[in-house]
Design brief:
By secondary structure, the chain is of the alpha+beta class. The chain has one domain: Roll (SH3 type barrels), CATH 2.30.30.90. Helices cover 19% and strands 34% of the residues. It is built from two helices and five strands, in the order E-H-E-E-E-H-E. It has a five-stranded antiparallel β-sheet with strand order 4-3-2-1-5. The radius of gyration is 11 Å and the shape is globular. The protein starts with 10 loop residues before the first strand and ends with a strand. The mean pLDDT is 95. This is Ferrous iron transport protein A. One of its GO terms (molecular function) is transition metal ion binding. Keywords: Iron.
């Protein structure tokens, strides 16, 4: 399962970041780390960005990036 498949308000833990090292480094700087708890806050309409709750804050990601982050079910 990836972040894009996560139901709203359901908590999950990050299992793997994208294989692209540059993108993975950017996500790590934002707090996206393996075994970090995350939940879906909001999906923008018309294939817009997706907002997640992470470390007591909301962070938005493009759908293409969210599809590359694996989480547990």
């Amino acid at each position: 399962m990836t972040l894009i498949d996560l139901p709203k308000n359901k908590r999950a833990k990050i299992l793997a970041l994208p294989e692209d090292k540059h993108l993975a480094a950017q996500l790590l700087e934002q707090g996206f780390a393996v075994r970090t708890e995350i939940s879906l806050a909001h999906k923008a309409p018309f294939n817009g960005p997706i907002a997640f709750r992470l470390h007591n804050t909301k962070i938005s990601l493009a759908r293409a990036v969210a599809q590359q982050i694996k989480v547990d079910a």
